[in-house]
Amino acid sequence: MNIKIFLMISLFFFSKPSTEETVFWGPTGHRTTGKIAEKHLTNKAKRKIDKLLKGQSLAFVATFGDEIKSDKKYNEFYSWHYVNMDLDEKYANAEKNPKGDLVTGIQKCIQVLKDENSAEEDKVFYLKMLVHLVGDLHQPLHIGQREDKGGNGIQVQWFGNGTNLHTVWDSKMIEEWNMSYIELANNAEDLSKKEIKAIEKGTLVDWVDEVHETTKEVYNSVKVGENLKYRYSYDYFGTVRTQLQKGGIRLAKILNDIF
């Protein structure tokens, strides 16, 4: 290939503005949650999951929900990745999306997996979706405001490059930390059984309302156009790690209950 053409192509792909709308933890975040969940599964749940996934790990399938977005036949599942709520609302009182949301999506996954009459193909699909959606649930901006699309409409900078608040929380802080999902999972906080039980406690809606409290903090953490750098990561990456760990523990709790 002509070197000039190669350089032009490279410039196109690697200099795209980072203001594209995203609505998911990045792959590393999702895989971290999946890996943490594996540590908390019962042996019975491990065997049944292994059989359904034919040896694939929860970390491996954790990105499935985003991968299928490129196929229009799965458009009906798009709204399952988030909940739109005003900052002063609880889920019970919030206006519901008629197309479904994170809560109804997770409930559907659980329903299919618990149904003995569900086809194996359906169980595999909804298991993969469940792994992904429980990860999404614990990214605070997936329970964000409708008017700014969960922080996608709040423009900021990350080390001088244009992006948005949602993307900072999805992937920018995780990428800046420069650890693999295995390293992040292996370095999760060492929790006591009592602390794990406290995280597992509550209903799905309780978890949504809890994460939404963190959502409020995230919205108040920046000003539009602000250049976020090391200090922001120092202040908030601990929250990212906590949310990834809670997501893994709660995913395992759901799967243990199902299987």
From TrEMBL:
**What organism is the protein native to?**
Polaribacter butkevichii
Provide this UniProt record's keywords sorted from A to Z.
Disulfide bond, Endonuclease, Glycoprotein, Hydrolase, Metal-binding, Nuclease
Superkingdom of the source species:
Bacteria
Is-annotated flag, keyword Glycoprotein? yes
Molecular function via GO: endonuclease activity; hydrolase activity, acting on ester bonds; metal ion binding; nucleic acid binding
UniProt xrefs under InterPro entries = PLipase_C/P1_nuclease_dom_sf, S1/P1nuclease
Record SUPFAM superfamilies: Phospholipase C/P1 nuclease (SSF48537)
This protein is called what? S1/P1 Nuclease
